[in-house]
Amino acid sequence: MTSSKPTKFHSSSRISCLTSHVSRLTSHVSRLTSHLLLLTLFLLPFSLLAQLDAGPNDTINPGIPVTLTATYGLIGEGVTTSEDGVEGPFPIGFTFSFFGNIYSQFYIGANGWISFSPNENSKGVDDVFAIPNASDFYARNAIFGPLQDLNPIHAGSPYIFYRTLGEDTNRQLVVMWCQTPFYECMDSLMTFQIVLNEGSNTIENHLMNKPSCPSWHGNAATQGLQNANGFIGYTVPGRNATSWSAQLEGWMYTPTSVDSFQIVQVPYSLHPITPGEKISYRWYQGSELIASEQSMVVTPSETTTYVVYATLCAGEEFVDSVTVFVIPYIPNAFTPNGDGLNDEFRMVGTPPENITEFHFQVFNRWGEVIFSTSDIEIGWDGSLKGQECPVGVYVWAVYYKENDKHRVTTKGTVTLVR
Q1: What range defines the domain where residue 224 resides?
Q2: Contact 245, 211 (CB under 8 A)
Q3: Residues facing residue 35 across a β-bridge
Q4: Strands (E), 81-199
C-alpha cells in the first residue's frame, strides 16, 4: 500500500503560474478597454461620428501594411488679413440673396464679419457698434458673427478659413474663425462659423466658444446683420454692442420678406471644414495611443479595430473607428500552369488604395530577389524575366519602410508546382 504525498510546487513554478494569471488578466483588461472604447463610439451623438471619417474597413493577410487615414471635411482656404482689415472678394460658389439683392462674392472682415460690399471705409476700424448703423466707417451689407475686436494677425495665422460645401442646389458657404485671439485678451480664443445656405438664403451662425474680454471695449460684441444702407438691422436678443459670452450655440436667420428676418436658436453643429493645422488626431488600439498623425501604417496579425479622435480648434472632439479584418490563410503552394486556377502567388489587401506602403519580394534558394512589387494587385506568376522558374520552394517577405529603415512584417515559403 502506497501513501500519496502532497504535491510540492517550487517557487519557480509558482512564479510561472502567477505570471500566466497576470498575463491573462492583462489580456482581459485590454479587451475590456477596447470594448469600452467601442461602446463610447456607440453612445456618442451621430453628428460627432458623421463628421470624422476613419476610412473604409480593410481586409488583409497577416502583416500586410495598411495606411489608415482620418478625414474631417474638406480643407478650408486660409485667409491672411491685416489688423482690422477687410479681405476679398472671394467666391461664394453659388448665388445668394441678401435683403433682396443677389450676390456671388463676399468679403471678410478681420473682426468677425462677412459682407457683400467692399466696405473700404471700415478698414482699420475696431469699434464695436450697435446696429442698424448707417455710418460710412462701419461695415454694412454685413453679417456679424459676432463683431468684436480680434487679432487674427497674431502668430499662428491664418485663423480665418472658408470653403463651399455640397453639390448644386444644396451648397453651403462656410466661413470660420478658428482659435482666434482677442486683440487685448490674447489667451481668450474665439471659434465660430457663419454659414450661407443655397436656395433657402438662410444664414446659420454657430459659436463653439465666445469668451469674455472685459478689459477691452467692455467686452462689447454684436451678433446679427444689417442691410446695405445701414437703416435696417437685426440682432440676437441682448447681443447688440453689449457684453456677453456664449458656448456651443447655434442661430438661424431666415428671411421672411425682402427687409425682414426671423432669428431663432437652433442646435449647435459646426460644418466640417479643416482649418489648416488647427486640428489634431489621436489613434488608439484598445487603450494604447499608437499615433498622433492624420495617417498611420498598421500591420495587424489578427482582426483589429482602431479608434481615432480629432480635436478641432482646441475645443471640439470627434471620433470614428475602422476595422482591419485579417484573413489568416496564406497559400503555401501555387501552380502557374495557365489553367486559370491558382496561377499566381499573391497577398490579400483590399481596398488596394490603402495598401500604399506595401513591398513584396520572392527569393530563390541563393537569396536572390527574383520577383518584387509594390502593387498589392500584382502577384508572382512563377517566372523571372519571361522564363519559367524551376519547381521548388521559394522564400517570400513583405516589408515597408519606416524612418528610412526596412521593416519586415511577415514572411514565409511557397512551393512552385507545375
Answers
A1: 74-271
A2: yes
A3: none
A4: 86-98, 101-109, 113-115, 142-147, 160-165, 172-181, 189-197
Mean pLDDT, all residues of the chain: 89
In one-letter notation, the amino acid at residue 290 is I
CA separation for the pair 34, 285 (Å, rounded): 7
Q: Which one-letter amino acid corresponds to residue 397?
A: A
DSSP 186: T
Q: What is the mean pLDDT of residues 269-274?
A: 94
Dihedral of the CA atoms 293, 70, 312, 88 (nearest 10)?
Answer: 100
Shared domain check, 233 and 128: yes
Question: For residues 403 and 234, which has the higher predicted lDDT (pLDDT)?
Answer: 234
Other Cβ atoms within 10 Å of 376 Cβ, number: 25
pLDDT tens-digit readout, 13-50? 433 443 344 344 444 444 444 444 444 444 444 444 45
The three cell numbers of residue 367 are 537569396
The answer to whether residue 339 is domain-embedded is: yes
How many residues make up the chain in this entry? 418
pLDDT one-digit tens code per residue, 276-306: 999 999 999 999 999 999 999 999 999 999 9
106, part of any domain: yes
Q: Which among 97, 100, 110 has a CA at the least distance from the CA of 196? A: 97
pLDDT digits (tens, 9 = 90+) for 350-396: 999 999 999 999 999 999 999 999 999 999 999 999 999 999 999 99
User: Hey, what amino acid is at 3?
Assistant: S
- Domain holding 343: CATH number? 2.60.40
pTM, two decimals, is 0.81
Domain termination site, one of 271, 293, 316: 271
Number of domains in the chain: 2
What pLDDT was estimated at residue 50? 59
Q: Would you say residue 125 has pLDDT above 50?
A: yes
Do residues 309 and 320 make contact, with C-beta atoms less than 8 angstroms apart? Answer: no
**The domain boundary residue, chosen from 271, 286, 302:** 271
d(Cα 416, Cα 321) in Å, to the nearest integer?
40
